[in-house]
Design brief:
globular, 1 helix, Immunoglobulin-like, signal, eleven-stranded mixed sheet, PCuAC_sf, LpqE-like, Copper chaperone PCu(A)C
Length: 166
């Protein structure tokens, strides 16, 4: 019985560490930075998360670096223009309004890791630094989930990033 209880406690602790995927800098809270597994030879990977601003002033995500996986990380937006879905880089970053939460997900705002150095493998993770205009730098870990649409890292069902070939 003692071993069973010890095993349950150990499992609970390891699960809480595995699911503790939130990061904070200043008044900003970054929840669940995630990516999806890539196929061999796929030149890009996407990044998703939510950013909550608990402060009284807006901030801005101005850049992201992830030198272990890409030397070119971009902030993108997907939008419908004249009935055509287009993706464009946001060189000025993303505003995080005071008291609001901004979602980075497929089909909208997201991160693009261009010319990735190696495939993203399900179950692995990688480090990145989010750079905010006011709050400063925040080191985070992106968890890599399944490439399948609708997985836990991407509730929106996946985006086609073929046009980002590089």
């Amino acid at each position: 019985m003692k071993n069973l209880l010890a095993s349950i406690v150990a499992l609970a602790l390891s699960a809480s560490v595995a699911f503790a995927h939130d990061f904070t800098v200043g008044t900003l809270e970054v929840h669940h930075p995630a990516s999806k597994a890539t196929l061999p030879g796929q030149p890009v990977g996407g990044g998703f998360m939510s950013i909550a601003n608990k402060g009284a002033e807006a901030d801005r995500l101005v850049s992201i670096t992830a030198p272990d996986v890409s030397d070119d990380v971009q902030i993108h937006e997907m939008a419908i223009e004249n009935d055509v879905m287009k993706m464009r880089q946001l060189p000025d970053g993303i505003e995080i309004p005071a008291g609001a939460t901004v979602e980075l997900k497929s089909g909208g705002l997201h991160v693009m890791f261009m010319k990735i150095k190696h495939p993203f493998k399900e179950g692995e993770s990688f480090k990145a630094t989010l750079n905010f205009e006011n709050a400063g730098a925040l080191d985070v870990d992106f968890t890599i989930g399944s490439a399948k649409p609708g997985n836990a890292t991407d509730a929106e069902g996946g985006a086609n990033h073929e046009g980002h070939g590089g």
